[in-house]
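User: Quick sanity check before I run a bigger batch. Here is a single chain. Can you write out its predicted 3D structure?
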Amino acid sequence: MPTSPPDHAPNTEGETSPPALPRPQPQSLSDLFFSFSILALQGFGGVLAVVQRELVEKKKWMTNEEFVEEWAVAQIMPGPNVVNLSVMIGERYFGWRGAIAGLAGMLAFPTLVVLGAALLYAHYAQNPQVAGALRGMAAVAAGMVAATAFKLAAPLKKHPLGQGLCALLAALCFAMVGLLHWPLGWVVPGLGLVACALTWRKLKP
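Assistant: Done. Predicted structure follows.
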């Protein structure tokens, strides 16, 4: 008769090591909803940096590797990337109800804020001070995205393709989108399929 593994695994000296602590996770649908609502309300100029910091570094619902993998899937799906991610994470913990709660959290309060901001912008858009402030915010948003890109590059050290080839693929993507201005809808599926094929070939026994 098979037996279950012991709660405490012995180490090399015959002692037992403490059991691994369970990973933190959302406690309820309301926890999931308000967590994503807070994330969305922080995301002025881009939510990616905020989501990575909150979900990986603070709440620890995901590891950095898991975040990179799921962000890659969200990137190639239709619709806003971070909204796709909220649906995926919600579904992981609470099924379809979690998917709806995550989606609602990302959209409910930010929609009200955007409507209010749109009314103010329509009234003050021609003001030179407002235009200058918006350009300053754009510079900060670009810095946030760049900082997050460096954080997300760390898990690539363990990637089967190696850092060199991963850096080459990233450089090609940057050149195609940022320099050549090729449509993202072509670059991501095309270059993504090449990366998937190379990784599959590397992992193939």
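The chain has seven helices and no strands.

User: Great, the batch can go ahead then.
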